Amino acid sequence: MDIIISPSLLAADMGNLEQELKTVELCGIDSLHIDVMDGTFVPNIAFGPDQVSMLRPLSNMQFDVHMMVQNPDRFISSFVDAGADCITVHAEACTHLHRSIQVIKSFGMKAGVALNPATPIGVLSHVYEMLDLVLIMTVNPGYGGQKNIAAMNQKIKELADMKRAGDYSFAIQVDGGINLSTIHDVIDAGATNIVIGSAAFQKNKTKQNLETFLKIVNEVTL
Prior knowledge:
The protein is α/β, with parallel strands linked by helices. It has one domain: Aldolase class I (TIM Barrel). It is 34% helix and 21% strand. A 9-stranded mixed beta sheet has the order 1-9-8-7-6-5-4-2-3. α6 links the parallel β8 and β9.
């Protein structure tokens, strides 16, 4: 089982993003999680197409764009143009989820759907075969640095069981409160794509932190 680390840009030093990206790449990481927030779907504002476009020439990493916005369909083409590689929308924010996934796929993008803690995995029962990624939020979205909701491990297990039963190919991504104390639990539950924010990006410790997390996932993969 391959497991990847996707550092969350939200926790990076905003005044030193180019160096932060270089540090991540030096660790051999090839996926960057970019949180987009509109201040309506979640109580915070972060990153838009212009910022993603400015970051794109600075990195060869896959840009994994997590859209925490109402009516995400209106922004999909803008993020495609900005350089996204994977676009994840929230099931709770889409009036017609199937159509939203179709729109993402129409641009040749990888498509993901995120579920808030209170949202059951059953809402995806008719779209699993369309998805490249399912994101289980292990905190309520909107802010970094929150404590992981341990009860979400059972939800991850349920999704992993559903994936095996249906022989689906989507990655199981987790986001929220992942640190050295919680990473083993989410991996044991079935997560294959681990978003890490404040536990990774720390002044003068980012490279060391990422290497520690990579060692953990490499030991699991072996």
